[in-house]
């Protein structure tokens, strides 16, 4: 089977359930940005990372496929929706665990430090954009609302993990200065 089908040459694309919509539809932009976040996360994973961080990020890459699949599903009654509150709770547990290693924040910090931490800060911003675009989609169409919760918590986790990578490499947070 060829990778190209030519079915999207008219500016439309297919969704689950044989629906076709324009490629500029908020649904496409939403799950496309989730895909972008996943690709950016792949760049982070191309770096040497400690086992627990690598394991969590690899799990998240797989979870992001579920988020994208749910966002590409225009039929909420479909049992294929898989993003669950348990997935959100798992992110919260990672945040709580990793924060135990970090000093409390006393000021805003700038993205940077170790290249992996800086890249993860970038992924965090892509996830924030995916969340905003998913909220915009939810104002137009029904979606699995757990996707918004998951993306919201995920950006928080990436912030914490960025700090954790720097801490473990003995790199101080970069304070924001006026």
TrEMBL record:
Pfam families: Cob_adeno_trans. Residues 3-164 form the Cobalamin adenosyltransferase-like domain. One of its GO terms (molecular function) is ATP binding. InterPro entries: CblAdoTrfase-like, CblAdoTrfase-like_sf, PduO-typ. Keywords: ATP-binding, Cytoplasm, Nucleotide-binding, Transferase. The keyword Ribosomal protein does not apply. It comes from the Archaea. SUPFAM superfamilies: Cobalamin adenosyltransferase-like (SSF89028). It is found in: Cytoplasm. Its main location: cytoplasm. One of its GO terms (cellular component) is cytoplasm. The keyword Cytoplasm applies. This is ATP:cob(I)alamin adenosyltransferase.
């Amino acid at each position: 089977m060829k990778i190209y089908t030519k079915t999207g040459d008219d500016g439309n694309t297919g969704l689950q359930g044989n629906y076709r919509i324009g490629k500029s539809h908020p649904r496409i932009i939403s799950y496309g940005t989730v895909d972008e976040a996943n690709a950016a996360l792949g760049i982070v994973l191309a770096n040497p990372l400690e086992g627990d961080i690598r394991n969590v990020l690899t799990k998240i890459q797989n979870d992001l496929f579920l988020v994208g699949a749910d966002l590409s599903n225009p039929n909420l009654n479909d049992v294929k929706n898989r993003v669950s509150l348990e997935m959100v709770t798992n992110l919260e547990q990672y945040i709580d665990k990793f924060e135990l290693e970090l000093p409390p924040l006393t000021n805003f910090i700038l993205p940077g430090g170790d290249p992996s931490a800086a890249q993860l800060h970038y992924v965090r911003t892509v996830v924030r954009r995916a969340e905003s675009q998913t909220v915009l989609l939810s104002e137009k169409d029904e979606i699995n609302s757990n996707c918004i919760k998951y993306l919201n918590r995920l950006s928080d986790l990436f912030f914490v993990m960025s700090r954790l990578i720097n801490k473990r490499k003995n790199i101080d947070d970069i304070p924001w200065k006026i």
